[in-house]
């Protein structure tokens, strides 16, 4: 089967074992004779460049171009540091599960970040794939990061296509990263692992992640973040989330208040409820009732990090780095202390009332159930009636009847309560209201506009 693109290692449906044998045979032929059949032209051209540069295919060890201190300084100052949270969300977290590692190198081919599967990282270090090492072609031979930088194009390098034999057990896919303003190459994004990294979809994923990173850089260049949203250098001391009666939560971090989008409101609430953290799959299940959209969740997490900072939101699993107080928890505390009136005053409405996320619905129903139980057994007449006449209470017959029974006969609220019961088709229990009052309530109900 012909390869549709010279940049991918082999087409869909290829037997990786057969492809590995063919690449190893072509490599042996080139080392011995300088010629090779059945190898991609992009790889053969790279081999020739490596040979001209004097790279030894048998004894090649990438040079350590940066010390640990230089790596730290380079990380701090490099423009690609701004897209690291996005790369971690889109590639590093899935890589840990898939047995892969993800690397970002600068334009000189020097690895700055190498993250992903811990065991694989240790193995990769044995061949010099670690921060500070230079993986340009002239230093390390044909490899995806070096060849992508040499050609300024995304590319895969599979097994024996590497010029150095020490790298033959590995496969990699890489894409250059550009400054959106000038077009200059800033560095390269790489995924390294086993044969599966040479599949066509792996290169497509790396290209998409590179495009997303460049879009993030473009966004930052065209609309710099306000001072209030700059990256924090220390963990916040105080975090509070307000979700009651609001479709968009209010997040307060060290006195700085910002209104979140509905989706970010849901994510933050769910993270406060799971201090031990949530995987991408678990969070997706709590956000989506029918299907688990991991990619969507990771993208939303990346956007949320831009708002709240890396020091508040951690990964693997997704979790808050400091405890967060919520207004829902405050209401629960007041109920537990018997401060029912204060609890009612501090609860302007349900938890994120329009959210349809299963995890949020569960939280909303749990708090509503706690409030209802306490009010039915402990609240006084006026407090009970005030809650029953709220939008969330007017569809609860038991709560309406309890309030109607509790109120004195002369209370004007009795008519309203009876009207709500009539709208639900419920006749008040004996002693709840005089017949004339019920009739008047039903008449009032007919004059009311339909709800909802």
Secondary structure blueprint with pairings:
Blueprint lengths: L15 H18 L7 H12 L15 H10 L6 H15 L2 E6 L4 E6 L1 H8 L11 H4 L3 H8 L3 E4 L12 E8 L6 E9 L6 H23 L16 E4 L7 E4 L2 E4 L2 H12 L6 H8 L6 H15 L4 E2 L4 E2 L4 E2 H10 L3 H6 L12 H21 L2 H8 L8 H10 L6 H11 L11 H13 L5
Parallel strand pairs: 6-11
Antiparallel strand pairs: 1-2, 1-5, 3-4, 4-5, 6-7, 7-8, 9-10
Describe this structure in words.
This protein is an alpha+beta fold and 452 residues long. A five-stranded antiparallel β-sheet has the order 2-1-5-4-3, with helices on both faces. The protein is built from 18 helices and eleven strands. 42% of the residues are buried. A hairpin with a 4-residue loop joins β9 and β10 (319-320). The chain folds into three domains: 16-222, Beta-Lactamase (2-Layer Sandwich); 237-377, Winged helix-like DNA-binding domain superfamily/Winged helix DNA-binding domain (Arc Repressor Mutant, subunit A); 380-452. The protein is elongated. α17 (413-423) packs across α18 (435-447).
Quickly describe the structure.
The protein is of the alpha+beta class. The protein has helices at residues 16-33, 41-52, 68-77, 84-98, 118-125, 137-140, 144-151, 200-222, 262-273, 280-287, 294-308, 327-336, 340-345, 358-378, 381-388, 397-406, 413-423, 435-447, and strands at 101-106, 111-116, 155-158, 171-178, 185-193, 239-242, 250-253, 256-259, 313-314, 319-320, 325-326. Helices cover 47% and strands 11% of the residues.
Label this structure with key terms:
452 residues, alpha+beta, Beta-Lactamase, Arc Repressor Mutant, subunit A, 3 domains, 5-stranded antiparallel sheet, 4-stranded mixed sheet, 18 helices, disordered C terminus
